[in-house]
Amino acid sequence: MSSDEDSETVHRASYLLYPDDGSEDTAWPRSTDLALLVLNEPIPQHNRSLFSSIWTRATHRICIDGGANQLYSLGTSDNTLHTRIPDAIIGDLDSLLPHVQKYYENHNAVVQKYHDQDSTDFMKGLAYLDSKLERQSNSCVTVVFGGLGGRLDHTLHTLKVLFNSHTHRNVVVVSDDNLTFVVPKGRSRILANSQVDGPACGILPLAGQTVLTTSGLRWNMHEQVSSFEGLMSTSNIIDRPCVTIDTTAPVAWTAQFRPPPN
Questions:
Q1: What is the pLDDT of residues 91-105, one digit of tens each?
Q2: How far apart are CA 36 and CA 224, in angstroms?
Q3: Pairing between strand 178-183 and 170-174?
Q4: Which residue in 202, 124, 123, 118 sits closest to 165, CA to CA?
Q5: What is residue 183's three-state secondary structure?
Q6: Angle at 85 between CA 144 and CA 141, to 5 degrees
Q7: How far is Cα 47 from Cα 246, in angstroms, rounded to an integer?
Q8: How many other C-beta atoms are found inside a 10 Å radius of the C-beta of residue 29?
Q9: Which end of the chain lies in a sparser environment, N or C, as judged by fewer CB atoms within 10 Å?
Q10: Cβ-contact 217, 202 below 8 angstroms
């Protein structure tokens, strides 16, 4: 995510996962770290090739509590257990299986337990990542696997964390069938890759009422009031490779995500 001189935010969206060096806008942003956070949800078969690619590219690899169980399970199923050792396992560790903890500790992963119950494991993991970054946290793209499936309270909390941190962190969440991130207040361009993005998408006003103007969608809006209680743009369609959103408050952008076959 970057801003130009006119304060327009450009979000590379799935090009952060599949960079394209043919254009500066779609290439990997210069002087930017890549972090991978693994939450406690199974990594679907159709996302495993992408997971492998992100793991290889990442400079920071952190499992959030039971996310280490998911990494361990994946490693035993595809014979990568010994080659995918996380830098750290972070959280209150109430979900971390003892044999998984022992294995990764024996392979020099940092296992750090936090007793604070006023922040969730996801928040603890992001704070730990911030402490390890040499530059500002907004110079790092954080790709999160999990967090938007399973229990509804966990899903809502993941969205809350995205909203609360979007001004100083660039976080994208990969779930079973979607790619989700927060679009800030103001004007934004979202670069859509027709090979993996969409066609369905949604703009979710979860930070309160906003006024939306869009282009590049099947059903665009012009100064449309949108709120959780009122109108929301769901089941919209991406019609162009560049979607613009003008919004008076932050909104969540979510789109169908179709990784290419392995």
A1: 999 999 999 999 999
A2: 36
A3: antiparallel
A4: 123
A5: strand
A6: 30
A7: 31
A8: 18
A9: C
A10: no
